[in-house]
Design brief:
- The protein is mostly helical.
- The chain has one domain (7-41).
- The chain has three helices and no strands.
């Protein structure tokens, strides 16, 4: 199931995002892109 996104990113996103299910779902790229943007900006989501 996780062939497009590396396990490292999913792990980071799971910690960063309160919804790990969405990360593993179809909206991986969209969520990951948004989360990475927030992380780069320095905003804490938790």
């Amino acid at each position: 199931m996780i062939s497009k996104t590396p396990p490292k990113k999913i792990a980071v996103m799971t910690v960063s995002s309160p919804r790990p299910m969405v990360i593993n779902s179809t909206g991986t790229q969209a969520i990951v892109g948004t989360e990475i943007r927030k992380l780069k900006t320095g905003e804490n989501i938790s």
